[in-house]
């Protein structure tokens, strides 16, 4: 009897112990290093830049691979994913069970949908268990970004938010040399901007000579919400509440914010006056047709990422424009769309950037977290961002870092290698003053004055997004891409409509958007927001 | 009785001994169909179940409404109804304009007197078939874009307005159909040209003696000779009335013509692959296949009633 009791006791202890051990630290991890070599795969964006290197195998990946192997005994393999279709591609990879161990995307709803099907690892227990091994990650992102997506009801963390170190979005750019040629002041109001566009159109002969028929006063792409953001946002009332901002803010181009329609009406007017590129809806994501028109010097103004014309060194817009048009040709950032309160309001996101997550197929959560810690250490990310002295940069007397144009195998495929520093977006040298000074010098071949100005006004008078966590919005599941596409269609169709048809086209498309799931999402968000925060 | 059985068995054994190699060869395509066509069909049940990426389809829980939840959801979805309408519209136009085109081209080629010129024309007509739709869409933008397209630049120089080939829904439909014909017409003549060589030359000799002209030759000899082929191909195309290509409408589409270019395959891609709603889109796919089978069977029955052989 006693013997049997003993056996039973031993067995139950064993079961208990093993159930505790099931989540105990990886036994192969001793003194901060794996005893046997582990393997992980990591997603990297592929931008297919002209003159760029292979994103999954180059100077930078070699550096990371070597570092991870030496420090943790982890072998890293990179998997390229096209930057401009990343959501589609990562979806395909996830559906096929082929996703890399460390995934990165800008689309949280994709992660959420996938998590609901059991396809994503909950990071909460791992972060707790291994926190002591992740000092750099916690230092860089802080609890705020790491637990940003924690569900208030269940405590799950499906993804970590990378840090948006320079919270910069877009700028309005105009051709500085054209303003001079026409004797125009820099526009400061909507009216002045419009008049400038008309002046470009009417003086095409003077500005472009034999290519006058190629004149594009304002250029746009199929992604109207992004590429006309400043124009449209100037119609959004300044006193919009935080609640409205969040409840109606699930569309990442803010289609549902109050008065959006009036901003689009303005674009419709411009289109019908011949101020907007007629072919804009025809070219899809990643197409370089528009860039080439800008580089060729046919475009007078556009809205795009805050440093867009200054990127990519010798292959970029700034350098190419000078080659094709002349030494004085350049784009300059301007601020010309005040809102109803007279404020040049920029609506910026909260300081979050890409979302890093591990799919359920990840069998190495510790090695993957260590990878994130590794690339988050100041030393490593500093090297990834600025490279080797004398090759990628020179150090000025005041310590500021100036980047050099690099071609060949050591080229950076993205500014400051953001595709490899997936936990941070934006240059960080560890000292804010030094960083700011360096950024202005950071664009090879572009004078500091252009950058300083773009850097300053892009976030001037900004309003930042807030973190609202009310748990999952069920109505939003799986709807994101379909609705985003509807939005793009609606915007393009409304802009090219005849002015007298504008309201009809808008209302039809907008109602379709609401009926196809938009309204259900609004209702659920409003209800959950009010339940959590009170109305 | 017993004797007959042994004879039969011996016959079977002899037969197998003689022809076993044919059966071995046949087993390869049969295995192909079982592995790649029939086994995947078991996943059709996803349409009636709540999909989960981590469970096998056999373990997934049944969907609501007796398993028909996703079919009901699809038919309540406006985008699906538009996609259904557009698929039928584009396929129907393809059929009435695209179906006669290769027959006419084949007749024309058949009438050519110089064999060398005929062969050259044939090859030139085949070539577009080997271009992918992505490339054709790129060419289409270069040619048809409103301001930078070659044809519109030419029209503008002559003082005409641009024609919105790609950016107006009605024009786009015709561009779509035209590009489809351009790509496939040459390729589709192959089967007709083969059928033409099967027509007995003595018929033409006899008609020449009777003094028939070319037109009468075509009308009374060539076309009746082609009739069975035409019917077979027509039945097969009717079976495809609800099937939809993906790359052709997707590559040619843009935000302005979405109201006509959004077809079922694009709907499935957008909601299924991008939106991860696999059950919904499997339901749509199943519906599509069932309708196609119904059309195929009906067309075949109709053809038989008209005295044709049908396809089975």
Structural overview:
The complex is a heterodimer of chains A (535) and B (312). Chain A has two domains: 27-164 and 349-430, D-Maltodextrin-Binding Protein, domain 2 (3-Layer(aba) Sandwich), CATH 3.40.190; 170-348 and 466-533, D-Maltodextrin-Binding Protein, domain 2 (3-Layer(aba) Sandwich). Chain A has helices spanning 2-21, 59-72, 86-95, 108-116, 124-130, 135-146, 176-182, 190-202, 204-208, 224-227, 229-233, 242-247, 260-272, 289-296, 317-324, 365-376, 378-386, 432-441, 448-457, 480-496, 502-533; strands spanning 29-30, 33-34, 38-46, 74-82, 103-105, 160-164, 170-175, 216-219, 299-305, 331-334, 346-348, 352-357, 393-395, 401-403, 424-425, 462-464. Chain A has 535 residues and is an alpha/beta fold. In chain A, strand 1 and strand 2 form a beta hairpin. Chain A is 43% helix and 13% strand. The longest helix of chain A has 32 residues, at 502-533. In chain A, helix 13 (260-272) crosses helix 20 (480-496) and helix 14 (289-296) crosses helix 15 (317-324). Chain B is an all-alpha fold and 312 residues long. Chain B has two domains: 1-48, no CATH class; 64-305, MetI-like fold (Orthogonal Bundle). Chain B has 14 helices and no strands. The interface between A and B is medium-sized, with 39 and 29 residues.
